[in-house]
Amino acid sequence: MAEKVFASLPQVERGVSKVIGGDPKGNSFLYTNGKCVILRNIDALAQGLCHSDTKGARMGSGPLGKAALGGWVLDPAVADIYTEHAHQVVVAKYAPSGFYVASGDVSGKLRIWDTTQKEHLLKYEYQPFAGKIKDIAWTEDSKRIAVVGEGREKFGAVFLWDSGSSVGEITGHNKVINSVDIKQTRPYRLVTGSDDNCAAFFEGPPFKFKFTIGGPEWAVVLRKLSQRSGQHGDNMAHVQAAALQKRALLGISAQCVLKQDPAEAVPMWHESSKLGGPLEVISGPLLSFWPMPKSHDALPIAQSSCRLHSELESWFVPCGPQATPALCTLKDHSRFVNCVRFSPDGNRFATASADGQIFIYDGKTGEKVCALGGSKAHDGGIYAISWSPDSTHLLSASGDKSSKIWDVSANSVVSTFPMGSTVLDQQLGCLWQKDHLLSISLSGYINYLDKNNPSKPLRVIKGHSKSIQCLTVHRNGSKAGSTLLLNCALHYWDSETGENDSFSGKGHTNQVCRMTVDESGRLVSCSMDDTVRYTSLTLRDYSGQGVVKLDVQPKCVAVGPGGYAVVVCIGQGTTDPQAAQDAGSCYDLRAAQGLCLTPTPPRAAGLPFRDSVQHRPSPPSRLVSVVTATTVSAHEKCFSLDNPSYEPEVVALHPGGDTVAVGGTDGNVHIYSILGTTLRDEGKLLEAKGPVTDVAYSHDGAFLAVSDASKVVTVFSVTDDYAESNVFYGHHAKVMCLAWSPDNEHFASGGMDMMVYVWTLSDPETRVKIQDAHRLHHVSSLAWLDEHTLVTTSHDASVKEWTITY
Question: What predicted TM-score, i.e. pTM, was given to this entire model?
Fold first, then answer.
């Protein structure tokens, strides 16, 4: 069991609302990232990590282990991750009972799983529709579930949680439904928000469509003349925008008010059974619908004939001196409705839209109460809203890079939280949980808002929201770890306190492939942006200093004593560079592959070639590997080894600083000696069982471990002239990474089989197996904090700390 889990941040998308759910007891919250649902303790995150003993704070019973049940240390490193979805999870919500969570993914699968056991057993699984599930709502008794999203045949469904039997039908929208909520008091009501700029109101159960709100609609006083009965009657018809396709609105003196396309099969109007009540919109094929000439006391709209009625119905707009005003416009939202939420007491519900408006409605009848802030609540689109527990205030999150607290009764802003000025500061989600106010930024950061000081959050939870590619450990007298993201963002974690932060400044502009810490305590990283960077771990700030620009793409970097860094480079082949230079020209070596040996740069790096050299694209030819040693201060090329007969993949430097081991796709490890500023091929090949995936020297330099794509780890004895010492079998898939324990007696390996093994050097049969270390995600990197503490990272964007007992 993992001692600590540093969970990923929410996975967010610009312009898309991020739903985060709260535990009914108010102790935790959950969100999604990739195929994972992450559950975190809300109190511990707000207060910061407790510095007391956390050995008992393992993931166990309860949604967040025993830490969530009281009596245990509240530790934000105690997170729970559910990883049973086969596709990307979009939304997850607690049942009001707190015993189950419903989570939906992009394929339309809804999984209902247990929160009281660490195994999170699956209770039920349904497929309400084929397409992305965007929101979920439960009734207060945890017996009914509503789901909405991007279905192909329908956009929503509501059913019993234990049988899947339908308890209503979600209709009234002609575009994707973004949000749904259910009134938590009886009588039940359900509301939805859609990309058709409307919200729909339902009564139930069984839930039936009542009317559409929020979108444009026309209130028309109509006079109906039945050709069959000759009876007249005036009614107020709310002609919904969703019911009138290809409509045209003209003035009262025009030839027609509404215009329909006769070829369209659209909903028809039918007189309500309630005398004088509004006309209902019913479905039926349209047989004929055309404008009629104007008369002296009425403006005919149209005549219609429907299969549901044998009579011909004529509709007129009264326009005489005594007539009621014929046409008025009632308009609520004009853009996508992103979020709808009922207040906890059920008396009101709110709708939030991309038009920057928030409307408040009566929770029982659906009648509009007010528009928060008048014409606009925010200057940008609103992506999420959340009610206070007492139903008196509302928290909103907007793309204008701010969040606001509203006093709903007074229709006024209580607090405005400015979150920054960059695009990444846009607010896409929010949650009001007990006394905690949370918002989610486009960066993925979780902000704890301070009502007493709106200008600065109480705390900002940072971390990873995308796949983690590599990991290294910086020891400065205490346990500390530094991890790196695929999105080029560096994050530094303190393994004892759990505090983390990102490196400031402009860093790598592409994926970082590998990083390590040199003897001076600087972070050395190589990236697909063709650079190697030296970054201070004290300042944790990128700068123009310490950047080595390469002509080829680096793939792996290793450092050793003496200030040298060896970089494996890879790319498309070129012609022989020496021959090209002898001919008086220089081919562009950006497409070469090989190794670069560079001393630690004292200042900004330059290109190893003179600026005056004219580069031109190389013609297609064989692959070339280049080993270059560059004195950056003098911009001199110290050494190059052209055209080795293999493709370098990984590299390691001996702790003594005199030997370099390079693993290749040819299934061999090639040994080089460092002689001053040059490398000498010793002609020694260490044979692996397949293409080499990683190499690592033990800390005392006595052994070299080699992993390969054939699921094997081979250890060679350096002191015995690299004789094969032991072979370790156990992985069921490609081994991805290696790391030696500080005791030099054990090493760890991680593979694509999601397993981590801790091996004993002297006995391959003595091993510690960590099954499903990162379930459904292979391990990307390993590092040791001490002899009994191992850290792993994966493409699930989480960092896990394991206590190893031999």
Answer: 0.78
